[in-house]
Amino acid sequence: MARRLGLRWLASLWVLLAMAAGGAAVWLWMSSQAAWMDHLDRAYIAGLALHDSLENGSALPAGLSRTQLRAEPSLPPGWRETRVALTGSARPDRAQGGRLSLRIQSPDMQYPVAEIQSLGGGSQAAALASVTRVLARFCSEAQLFARPDDGPWLRIDGAPVWGCEIAPADLRLPAVAILVAALVLLLGWVAEVSGAFTTFAAALRDHRARNAELPVGGVDELRQTAEAVNAYVAQDRAALENRALVLSAVSHDLGTPATRLRLRSALIEDADLRGRLERDIDEMTGMIDGVLTYTRAEIGQEPFRELSLTSLVEAVVADYQDVGLPVRLNGAPARETGAGTLFARARARPAPERHRILMRGQPTSLRRALSNLIDNALKYGREAEVTVDGDADDAVLTVTDRGSVLTEADLARLTGAFQRGGNAGTASGVGLGLAIVSTIAAQHGGRLEFLRASNGLAARMVLCRHWA
User: Fold this and answer.
1) What whole-number percentage of the chain has pLDDT above 70?
2) Are residues 157 and 215 in the same domain?
3) CA 46, CA 42: separation in Å to the nearest integer?
4) Does residue 449 fall inside a structural domain?
5) Contact, 159 vs 166, CB < 8 A?
6) 388 and 399 assigned to the same domain
7) By C-alpha distance, which of 171, 170, 190, 193 is closest to 182?
8) Is 160 in a helix, a strand, or coil?
9) At residue 386, what are phi and psi to the nearest 5 degrees?
10) What CATH number is given to the structural domain containing 271?
């Protein structure tokens, strides 16, 4: 795989790109502004030279020509005309010196008279130069007609000076486009790097991170972090598997001595001593089996597959009922259809049928978790009521007992390993049942929580229906 750049190099590239894009945009903008100002200045100077030619008969500047008309200029159909009268003081209300009448005819615009002003002083020459500058500023195939005093009308042709073809290209829009493109590119790179870290963080928070490798990608630092975490997870998983292997071997090897102890304990004539010894043997083997089950639950080697959660629950409940234990399966609670209307109340409708609650999960692990919850309810609450419910995202298993009373401290620590409630008394067990349930729920993208019921305690296991 190709080596990705690190954050330090990417940040350096981003800074250089931003500086280059900003410099290019500023250069284009300033060069465009300078070219336009030069274009307008040339038109202004041409206007001054045109006035000198009209007043003194000198030669016209380069790019200008004039044609004498026999009659007043006529306005073509659809064209617009702007009329301006310039006196010697460049003020129409002050009749000093000669009068210069101008007509500007354009096919698509009326020239703003406010723009036709003296830029170099109050002279008539400056006013005419302002006119030619305005013609250069607004791109239009305009025709300029001039009439000094009461003389004939002259048509001034100056397309090489103020025409659209001679106008410089306006590079301000490309300058803005460069800035926007650079900004989009930089934001895209930043979003890509940020997205890679966000994906990595989400995968790291995922409960399945123990069973699946984290994505390796993005910048070099993130790739190195992902590889280090994957190596650590692999070592942790290998340690768990070795622990399970050792415990399995110990459980197997202790089977023969435990059997011999049972046989020899049967020879003890004292019934009380024999019973205590057998209970010690059962507690020892039960503890080993519990630790082995908990370790296997942590590893979670069982594959996920499609299953009917309700069918699984019905089978587990039926097993308890077959041996006469007080376990029953309740229907899912009814739900309201929604808000009522002006003419009808909101009505409750039954939840979907049980067999419709499907999910992806580990059937053996789920059976073990449900059995542990039912065993706890029977052990500490005399009976168990099981409810299966769910929505589009989650499935919920609830096991409610009767008579179990636990403190807040008990509820907070029950899901820990080797933790038992204050009402455990002399009941058998090593305190791993709920820890196993909590681990299995986490492996299914869910959680184990406890709710106080009217007559006891409800253990609620929430499972993600599409977790793997």
Assistant:
1) 75
2) no
3) 6
4) yes
5) yes
6) yes
7) 190
8) helix
9) -110, 135
10) 1.10.287.130
Q: Match 């069982």 to its residue by tokens.
A: 302
Residues 283 and 307 in one domain: no
- Please give the average per-residue pLDDT across 166-180, as a whole number: 90
**pLDDT tens digits along 16-50:** 989 999 999 999 999 999 999 999 999 999 999 99
Judged by DSSP in three states, 152 sits in: coil
Mean pLDDT of the chain: 79
Two tokens, residue 138: 């607004």
41 and 116 belong to one structural domain: yes
User: Any residues with CB less than 8 A from the CB of 118 and at least 6 apart, and which?
Assistant: 90, 126, 127, 130
Return the number of other C-beta atoms located less than 10 Å from residue 75's C-beta: 12
Which of 197, 95, 184, 106 lies closest to 144, judged by CA?
A: 106
How many angstroms separate the CA atoms of 159 and 141, rounded?
Answer: 8
Q: What is the pLDDT of residue 292?
A: 66
The two structure tokens encoding residue 280: 């010690």
> Among 139, 121, 115, which residue's Cα sits nearest to residue 48?
121
**Does one domain contain both 142 and 76?**
yes
The bridge status of strand 80-86 relative to strand 100-106 is antiparallel
Q: Whole-angstrom Cα distance, residue 234 to residue 238?
A: 6
User: What's the number of domains the chain is made of?
Assistant: 3
Q: Which domain holds residue 415?
A: 303-332+354-468
Please, what is the angle between helix 271-299 and helix 363-381, to 10°?
A: 140
Query: Residue range 403-415: average pLDDT?
Result: 61
Shared-domain flag, residues 234 and 311: no
Helix (H) or strand (E) holding 384: strand 384-390
pTM passes above 0.70: no
- Is residue 240 domain-shared with residue 107, that is, in the same domain? no
> If you average pLDDT over each of 2-11, 86-95, 327-336, which comes out highest?
2-11
Q: pLDDT category, 462, cuts 50, 70, 90?
A: very high
Structure tokens belonging to residue 5: 């750049």
Which pLDDT does position 2 carry in this prediction? 47
Q: What is the DSSP letter of 415?
A: T
- Phi and psi (nearest 5°) for 177? -65, -40
| CATH, residue 430 | 3.30.565.10
Nearest residue to 387 via CA among 331, 464, 460: 331
Q: Kindly state whether residue 364 falls inside one of the protein's structural domains.
A: yes
For the record, the structure tokens of 139 come out as 């791109």
Tracing tokens 């729920």 back to the chain, one arrives at: 441
